[in-house]
Design brief:
Largest sheet: 8 strands, parallel, barrel
Number of domains: 2
CATH superfamily of the largest domain: Aldolase class I
Radius of gyration: 22 Å
Number of helices: 10
Mean pLDDT: 92
Number of strands: 21
CATH class of the largest domain: Alpha Beta
Low-confidence stretches: none
Strand content: 15-25%
Strand order of the largest sheet: 1-2-3-4-5-6-7-11
C-alpha cells in the first residue's frame, strides 16, 4: 500500500498560508507573534489563526503552529492561555523544542498534537523512542539525517516522522548556532537570527587582509532541493515532507508547493518521473544555488556558498490574477513586462500554459504596452481561461 505522505508547507502570514493551501499543501505550519522562531516573519495574531484554521477546514487541510522558542524564565508568561486558544481555534498540532512546553500543553490543551521541532536535532532511533515515551506524536528529524538514516529510524520506531525536503539549510546544527547572538545580540534560539552566516566577511591574518575584496568570505549552506528523494521518503513510511520558508513570497510558495504536489501525485500513481522537468520547475523560484543537503552524502565544500552573500532576486513573477470574465483577465502587476513578452500562467487548477502579451488596458481605459508599476491593476486579453489566484511569470525561452 502506498504511503499517503503529507506535504507540509510554510505560511508567513494569512495570505501566504492561503496560497500554500490553494496550491496543494496538505497542511500549513505558521508562527504566532510569540513563542516562535523566525521573528522577522510577519506571523499571526490569534485572530488570524482562527481565520486560517477555518479556511483550512474548508479545503480539508490542517494547521500546525510553531511554538519552538528555547525559553528563558520570562518566556513562559502567557504560554498556557496561548495554547488553550490554539486548541480552541482548531489547530491540529504545535511544533515545540522545549520539554516543559510539552508538559504544559498536555495539561492545558490535550487535544493538540505535539510535534517535536527539528531544533532538537533528532538523528537516531533511540532519541525518537525517548520522545515517543514522553507522549510526543511526531518527531521532525534533524536536517543532518541521510536518506538511509531516515529509513532506518522509520523502520525502528512507531511514532510519526517528518523530514525536510526543500528550503534553506543551517550552517550549524539546526537551531544551535550562536553566531548571531555573539555578533548582534539577536538570539537565533529566541527568534532573532540575523543570518550572520550569509554576511560578507573580511578575512584577516593579524593586520593583513587575506580575503579577495571582490569576493569576500561567507559560509552559508546551499539550499536543499530533495525532489529526487521523494519516492524514497514515501517508501520509508514517514508521515510528512516539509518545505522550509516562512519568510518566502507567495510566488515562491506557489511554485515550489505546486511542483511537489505534482511530483508526489505522479509517484503515487506509479507514473514515470522526468526529474529534469521538475528541476527546471523548481529553478523558476530558486534564488540561491541548491544541493541535496545531507540526503545523499556528508556535504563537503561544494555544498556551501563560500563567497556568495544573500539571495538573488528573480523578476520572473509578473502578475497575479484577481478576476476573469469572457474577454479579459484582471491582473495585479508585480514586475515589469511589455507587449510581445511570452508569459506563462500556472495556478491551483492549471498547469503551465503560455501566451503572447497583446492587449492590456489600464484603469483609465487606455491601451498600454509597458507594464512597470508594481500593484497596478490592469485588464489583459488572455486566449484561454484563467481563474482568480493564478499567477503569471515570464516564460524562459
Amino acid at each position: 500500500m502506498i504511503n499517503r505522505i503529507e506535504l507540509l508547507a510554510p505560511g508567513g502570514d494569512l495570505e501566504r498560508a492561503k496560497t500554500a493551501i490553494r496550491y496543494g499543501a496538505d497542511a500549513v505550519y505558521l508562527g504566532g507573534k510569540k513563542f516562535s522562531l523566525r521573528s522577522r516573519a510577519s506571523n499571526f495574531e490569534i485572530e488570524d489563526i482562527y481565520k486560517i484554521c477555518k479556511f483550512a477546514k474548508e479545503y480539508g487541510k490542517e494547521i500546525h503552529v510553531v511554538v519552538n522558542i528555547i525559553p528563558h524564565n520570562e518566556d513562559f508568561e502567557g504560554i498556557s492561555n496561548y495554547l488553550i486558544e490554539l486548541e480552541k481555534a482548531g489547530v491540529k498540532a504545535i511544533i515545540v523544542a522545549s520539554l516543559t512546553i510539552i508538559k504544559i500543553a498536555k495539561e492545558v490543551a490535550p487535544k493538540l498534537e505535539i510535534h517535536l521541532s527539528t531544533q532538537m536535532s533528532s538523528l537516531n532511533s533511540e532519541t525518537v523512542k525517548f520522545y515517543e515515551s514522553l507522549g510526543v506524536d511526531r518527531v521532525v528529524l534533524g536536517r543532518e539525517c541521510s536518506i538511509d538514516e531516515i529509513k532506518e529510524i522509520s523502520n525502528n520506531t512507531n511514532i510519526e516522522l517528518e523530514a525536510f525536503i526543500h528550503g534553506a539549510m543551517c550552517a550549524n546544527y539546526s537551531g544551535r548556532c550562536t553566531i548571531s547572538n555573539a555578533l548582534t545580540l539577536r538570539d537565533a534560539n529566541r527568534g532573532g537570527c540575523a543570518q550572520s552566516c550569509r554576511w560578507k566577511y573580511h578575512l584577516m591574518d593579524n593586520d593583513k587582509e587575506i580575503s579577495i575584496p571582490e569576493t569576500l568570505f561567507s559560509m552559508s549552506a546551499k539550499d536543499l532541493q530533495g525532489s529526487r528523494y521523494v519516492k524514497d521518503m514515501i517508501d520509508s513510511g514517514i508521515a510528512s515532507l516539509k518545505i522550509e520558508g516562512r519568510m518566502k513570497s507567495s510566488y515562491y510558495l506557489a511554485t515550489v508547493i505546486k511542483t511537489y504536489r505534482k511530483l508526489i501525485d505522479l509517484i503515487n500513481e506509479g507514473k514515470e518521473i522526468d526529474y529534469d522537468y521538475f528541476d527546471n520547475e523548481f529553478s523558476k523560484a530558486e534564488n540561491r544555488p541548491t544541493s541535496t543537503g545531507f540526503l545523499k552524502e556528508l556535504p563537503d565544500e561544494n555544498y556551501h556558498l563560500y563567497g556568495i552573500n544573500g539571495a538573488g532576486v528573480t523578476h520572473e513573477f509578473v502578475g497575479y490574477v484577481l478576476d476573469n470574465d469572457d474577454d479579459y483577465a484582471t491582473i495585479e502587476v508585480r514586475n515589469k513586462f511589455v507587449k510581445g513578452d511570452v508569459l506563462e500562467v500556472f495556478g491551483p487548477e492549471i498547469d503551465n500554459k503560455d501566451f503572447v502579451v497583446d492587449t492590456v488596458i489600464n484603469k483609465d481605459g487606455e491601451i498600454i504596452e509597458l507594464m512597470n508599476k508594481p500593484m497596478e491593476v490592469v485588464r489583459m486579453s488572455i486566449p484561454f481561461k484563467v481563474t482568480k489566484h493564478d499567477m503569471l511569470r515570464k516564460k524562459r525561452i
